[in-house]
Amino acid sequence: DLVRTYVERAAGPNATSDVNLARAYMNSGFGLVLLAEHFCQGAFLVGPPLTPAQVFDSAAVRFAKAVTIGAASAAAGVAEGTKVVNGSNVGLARALLGKKDYAAAAAAGALVPAAFVYNVVTVDDPTNRALGNGVFGTDQNAVVLVPDVYRALADTRVPWRDGGRNAQDTQFRYYQNLKHPSWATPIRIASGLEASYIAAEA
Fold this sequence. Notes:
The chain is mainly alpha-helical. 50% of the residues lie in helices and 10% in strands.
């Protein structure tokens, strides 16, 4: 468990304002949201199976802790603290929406500035591709293609091109996704735009 490991290392007088601890809580919250959205049960550390609502609740607890610690970090002059607070409020809104706690989801989303964007850090390092954009990496193997229904939309948010060959399975034409054009392309994980969508849905 990422957070438990970091808590053990960060325990001390600075733990309540450690931006790295806040970031660990935030990232683990996003991991739990992903689990709750895609699986009918979740289990942690050989514990009992949890329903999606319970996993969303666990994520909400992580995000709330990230907000508290991130805010303390920002108050101490660490600029990253504010980014973690905003990103965690997006995650909190997402988790609360998943729990169908609509009023609380809208309230959390309303705290996020409209222009806010939080990206996954990516690095174009030929010696360690694990640091790069994994979507781009998968795309290079012609594993993922843009289906007909999305190409027909002619939507600028779904850029693509004919890859000039068939995909990995050799059966389908390789229509390449151009949304992530390089190893260094950042991946958006949270934004004010998403927060506004959550508020509208709630």
